[in-house]
Amino acid sequence: MKKTFATLALFIALYSNAQTVIPLYNGAAPGSENWNWEEKQIKADIGSIVMDVSHPSLTAFVPSNPNGTAVIIAPGGAFHALAFDHEGTEVAKRLNAKGITAFVLKYRLAHDDPAHPENNFSTLLQNKNYKKLDSINAAVVPLAMQDGLTAVKYVRQHAADYKIDPNKIGFMGFSAGGTLTMSVVYSATDDTRPNFVAPIYAYEGAIIGSTVPTATTPIFICAASDDDLGFATHSVHIYLKWLEANQPAELHMYEKGKHGFGTKHQGIPVDTWMDRFTDWLTMHALIK
């Protein structure tokens, strides 16, 4: 039954305009079987914001002429929300234009209890109370990491169907998605480890694990010096850790851009960060 379910999901993904939701699990996600809230989607000036995810999934964006490279994209949102378009679907479309197959990951999120508005994630972020936010998120970050690991495993197992090289699967994440990216690469086994990673203005405080893989795993890091959440140094720490492990590492620290620049157009150099990312992929022979 499980194999039939996975085959059906794959068939739908490949033959319905290449933008289809693929459930990561057959049934309830392990560890959150009792979650009973409904997923919410809010329209904002940066596109769709998704909250209360309890059924993790991938949305496949398949280019007309795949070049063999794939990237799993984890949008950010403090593990309470996902900037699904701004740091997800729009990124996927830009990668598709380069022939890269993209998968936007919808991972499990913490639920804001309306009875405790003082614990609302936006309030905690505004007050920079990361210690309390980390405490609230502590139960969900391992579940989100499991969703990331499961996503890598799914893409690798179905690589041939998507015309993907199983040795050219990357993981990119923004803010909390960057935390997830690093947790995945630190905690993976051979079948769930991405071949390259790209944490974008990652938050270091909630990362699970710390061991840099021994297998060659290039990293592309990007952030802004004026990050208004103070995360610029987090990217520097990750970069230095990769250098110390003699792993290929590239860091782009823009003077201006603030936190969450994603695919936003600001009329400043940070707008071209995705061009630098594809330059880096080309240097590593991941695209032509």
Please describe what this structure looks like.
The chain has 288 residues and is of the alpha/beta class. The chain has one domain: Alpha/Beta hydrolase fold, catalytic domain (Rossmann fold, 3-Layer(aba) Sandwich), CATH 3.40.50. The chain contains 8 helices and 11 strands. It has helices at 2-14, 85-96, 121-126, 130-137, 141-157, 176-187, 232-244, 273-283, and strands at residues 19-23, 40-44, 47-51, 57-61, 70-74, 81-83, 101-106, 169-174, 196-200, 219-224, 249-254. The strands form 2 sheets. An 8-stranded mixed β-sheet has the order 1-4-7-5-8-9-10-11, with helices on both faces. The protein has a 3-stranded antiparallel β-sheet with strand order 2-3-6. Strand 2 and strand 3 (47-51) form a beta hairpin. The N and C termini lie far apart (40 Å). 44% of the residues are buried.
Please, what is the average pLDDT?
93
Q: Roughly how many Å apart are the termini?
A: 40 Å
C-alpha-based Rg, rounded: 18 Å
Q: Could you say how many structural domains there are in total?
A: 1
Question: What would you give as the CATH superfamily?
Answer: Alpha/Beta hydrolase fold, catalytic domain
Could you tell me the number of beta strands? Answer: 11
Just name the CATH architecture.
3-Layer(aba) Sandwich
Share of helix among residues?
25-40%
In N-to-C order, the SSE pattern is: HEEEEEEHEHHHEHEEHEH
